């Protein structure tokens, strides 16, 4: 489930090939069998003239203008290639009937992927685009509660996902939630890749009660569309542009004086800063608090921003990349959402959340 993309795709055809992927027939988890379109009477290949073809390509497709009327009607939608932060998938667009807990949705657009690299066994896009699952089902809201990463290898426990299919306000849980409005990116129409994101208005960040000063352009989308903060369930560790990450990292280093910094683990793990806490009877780190527009603020549990990566070594689980970043200045990842009930209220254009033990 990926709120940072909008295409729903799965392994498809008997010749599906996945290189460097997180699942395999030899893994401990049961293998997910590829979908075979020819065995489904409701499966149809999307035509080039079908508006849904442009959904999956995020642009208008120029079908062959020289074809005759009959061949134009039979021309199929060109194969898609979707690029993610860690890999790709390639396939063809299908129209299929979705059956989901008693709901039947005909003519549902799905990606029939035949080749992938560095991917899970399929992705359900929950972003803002027209091809996403919430958009195609016309959801008023959806919510999830992500289990602690401690249960990653526990096949008997799983996180919850709630779809408001009836588009009715149930009132459940919402009284205890705090809300922040979604923010508009001024360049959504010009840069379609930005249109799938859920932007949030992050006003400031504090570490141990101290305001971390960082360039505002990374917290709010600029006139060129770059910058701003998005929430993305498909990103693991929160990503920050370098000019925003360095002040945050420096503040943790400045305040954490009880533990010795261990740079050799930083080189191995790619995380920083890291501290040796093996000799400590109790481990304590400064509080990390995020302040959002609308008066919503949240203090993250320490296990949501520090993790043990070795014997007695704890590292900050927020990362950075190259100095220049095109796109969001900060991506709030799923590691920071552990044990939070998160609601995407699409009807009212806002995000709600509260801390709770996800079961």
Automatic annotation (TrEMBL):
Domain Peptidase A1: 1-354
Domain of life of the organism encoding this protein: Eukaryota
InterPro entries per UniProt: Pepsin-like_plant, PEPTIDASE_A1, Peptidase_aspartic_dom_sf, Plant_Aspart_Prot_A1, TAXi_C, TAXi_N
Entry's family note: Belongs to the peptidase A1 family.
Keywords annotated in UniProt: Aspartyl protease, Glycoprotein, Hydrolase, Protease
Keyword Membrane in record: no
Protein name: Peptidase A1 domain-containing protein
Pfam families associated with the record: TAXi_C, TAXi_N
């Amino acid at each position: 489930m990926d709120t940072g993309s909008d295409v729903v795709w799965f392994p498809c055809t008997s010749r599906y090939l996945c290189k460097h992927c997180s699942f395999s027939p030899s893994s401990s988890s049961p293998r997910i069998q590829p979908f075979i379109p020819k065995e489904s009477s409701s499966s149809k290949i999307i035509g080039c003239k079908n508006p849904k073809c442009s959904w999956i390509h995020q642009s208008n497709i120029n079908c062959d203008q020289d074809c005759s009327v009959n061949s134009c009607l039979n021309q199929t939608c060109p194969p898609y290639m979707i690029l993610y932060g860690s890999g790709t998938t390639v396939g063809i667009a299908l129209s299929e009937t979705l059956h989901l807990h008693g709901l039947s949705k005909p003519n549902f657009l799905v990606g029939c992927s035949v080749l992938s690299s560095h991917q899970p066994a399929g992705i359900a896009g929950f972003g803002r685009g027209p091809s996403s699952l919430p958009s195609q089902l016309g959801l008023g809201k959806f919510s999830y509660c992500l289990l602690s990463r401690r249960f990653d290898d526990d096949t008997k426990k799983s996180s919850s996902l709630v779809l408001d299919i009836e588009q009715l306000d149930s009132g459940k849980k919402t009284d205890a939630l705090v809300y922040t409005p979604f923010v508009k990116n001024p360049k959504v129409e010009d840069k379609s890749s930005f249109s799938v994101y859920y932007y949030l208005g992050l006003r400031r960040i504090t570490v141990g009660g101290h305001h971390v000063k960082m360039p505002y352009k990374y917290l709010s989308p600029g006139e060129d569309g770059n910058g701003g903060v998005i929430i993305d369930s498909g990103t693991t560790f929160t990503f920050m542009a370098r000019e925003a990450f360095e002040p945050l990292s420096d503040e943790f280093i400045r305040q954490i004086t009880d533990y010795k910094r261990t740079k050799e683990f930083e080189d191995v793990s790619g995380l920083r800063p890291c501290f040796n806490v093996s000799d400590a009877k109790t481990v304590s780190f400064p509080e990390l608090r995020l302040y959002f527009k609308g008066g919503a603020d949240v203090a993250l549990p320490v296990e949501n921003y520090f993790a043990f990566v070795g014997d007695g070594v704890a590292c900050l689980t927020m990362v950075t990349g190259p100095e220049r970043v095109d796109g969001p200045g900060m991506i709030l990842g799923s590691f920071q959402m552990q044990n939070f009930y998160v609601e995407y209220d699409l009807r009212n254009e806002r995000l709600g959340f509260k801390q709770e033990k996800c079961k």
